[in-house]
Structure formats: C-alpha cells, structure tokens
Amino acid sequence: MPFSDLLFPGCELTASSKSYTFQVDEEDDSDHILALSVVCLTDGAKDECNVVEVVGRNHENQEIAVPVANLKLSCQPLLSLDNFKLQPPVTFRLAAGSGPVHLAGWHRIVHREDASFEEDDDLSEEEEEEETELAPIMPAKK
Hints:
Helices cover 11% and strands 49% of the residues. It is mainly β. The protein is globular, with a radius of gyration of 20 Å.
C-alpha cells in the first residue's frame, strides 16, 4: 500500500485570523491523515490563556469542537501532541486568547491501488494483534 508523507507547513492563529481549515480535494479517493505534532505560542504572545480547538465532524456528521491545547506564556508556552491524528476536513480555531499560536505536524496520503486494499489492511491488523500479545505473568518466587 503506497503512501506519501508530507510536512504540514502549519498555520498560525491570531486575534485577526482565528481559524484555519485543512481540507483535501473531494474528488481524491485516497485516504488522508493529518497529524498534529506541536502547538506553541510565538513572538508577540501575551501572558494570557490561549485555547486552541479542533473542529471536525462525528460519526453522525454533526460538527464537534474539542479543545486540544491551553497555552500560557508564563507556564506552558508549548504543547507536544504526539502526532494527534485527524481526518480532514478539520478546522483549527483559537477559541480564547489573541495568540499568535503556531500549529505544526504532518500529512499522510494513502493511495488506494485496488480492491485488495481492505483485505491487506485486515491482515495487518491480525498480525499486529499477534505481535502485541503479552506473555503470561508468572507468580513471584517465595
């Protein structure tokens, strides 16, 4: 299953530009994953709470907003999100504060070649389960 990793150049949320939407072409039949790595305050930030939300859609296609970062210059100017994966389209919104807040991550495109894509995916899940089985815990010797 071929794929491409692209660096998400990021975006900056400010008082004058409070949201940014990442979307892909609707005609593209590839699977897209956007991973958010870091959210941080940049030069010019005030010592105030800056809340960043991710706005997406749930399984019922209803809009849902989830706060992912609450940054303050004096105590937490940066947050690592460990490649928090999102399904585009997704909007990043500065729900509180004036920023500037910079977001960075990566974008993966998984190209579908044929119908065997789903079968290969199921096989890899079974293999992953086999690899993650834990050895039984033995009682401690007395």
